Q: What sequence folds into this?
């Protein structure tokens, strides 16, 4: 596994596209994670692989002091712009989840919403998240469950992108045994549950327009692929979505794991 190649590709891919529509669809999961982590005023919180800051902003709204980190320069720019526009003082730092540039035991809570799951080495991810949280503090993650909407779209897209670096599949985090193994010896206790995120659109065409303009992997694919294979890829995705929702207004559900690990005191 060429870890550097995987990370360079991820940083490039996640700088593409508008992202705001996809971010809005993911926001409810960030709020659920914040609430289960019991984030409150006065705490120090780190949002890892933050995207444009759903978890960071949800925590800042509770009065927490927040640092947001991401590997992608494009996401950092989006996040800074968004947090400033919404009136929150969030520190944005470029960081690799497998090598976080923060001292041990710094934060009361470390969270990641569909972000840290992408990193290629899960055990190192768990170790780094736990390293920077204080004894008795909380690490929270969300990860897509295999076979549901988002992983299935990713699977269909990967068929058309030959030569992409292959690493850890992010949906493996949604396997409870995998999650418990990664945090074994680090967490005093761990809770694992499955939640559902619902996506709605007025029509299939509206959904596909939002998806192809806002999901960075699909935007990057369009930039890199000739028109014919790109149209074949999006056509296959469209048919899958139609099979899930029919031809009327779109209502799609995607299951995800919500993982909460408490660091030993």
A:
């Amino acid at each position: 596994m060429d870890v550097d190649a995987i990370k360079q590709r991820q940083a490039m891919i996640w700088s593409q596209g508008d992202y705001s529509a996809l971010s809005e669809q993911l926001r409810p999961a960030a709020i659920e994670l914040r609430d289960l982590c019991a984030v409150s005023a006065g705490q120090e919180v780190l949002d890892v692989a933050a995207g444009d800051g759903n978890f960071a902003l949800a925590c800042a709204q509770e009065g927490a002091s927040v640092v947001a980190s991401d590997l992608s320069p494009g996401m950092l720019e989006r996040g800074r712009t968004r947090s400033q526009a919404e009136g929150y003082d969030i520190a944005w730092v470029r960081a690799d989840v497998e090598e976080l540039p923060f001292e041990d035991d710094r934060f009361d809570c470390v969270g990641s919403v569909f972000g840290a799951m992408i990193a290629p080495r899960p055990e190192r991810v768990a170790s780094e998240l736990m390293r920077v949280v204080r004894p008795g503090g909380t690490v929270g993650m969300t990860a897509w469950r295999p076979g549901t909407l988002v992983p299935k779209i990713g699977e269909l897209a990967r068929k058309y992108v030959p030569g992409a670096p292959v690493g850890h599949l992010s949906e493996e985090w949604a396997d409870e045994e995998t999650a418990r193994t990664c945090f074994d010896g680090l967490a005093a206790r761990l809770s694992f549950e499955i939640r559902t995120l619902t996506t709605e659109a007025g029509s299939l065409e509206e959904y596909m327009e939002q998806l192809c303009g806002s999901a960075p992997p699909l935007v990057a694919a369009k930039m890199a692929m000739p028109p014919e294979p790109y149209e074949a890829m999006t056509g296959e995705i469209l048919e899958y979505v139609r099979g899930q929702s029919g031809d009327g207004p779109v209502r799609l559900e995607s299951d995800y794991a919500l993982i909460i690990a408490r660091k030993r005191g």
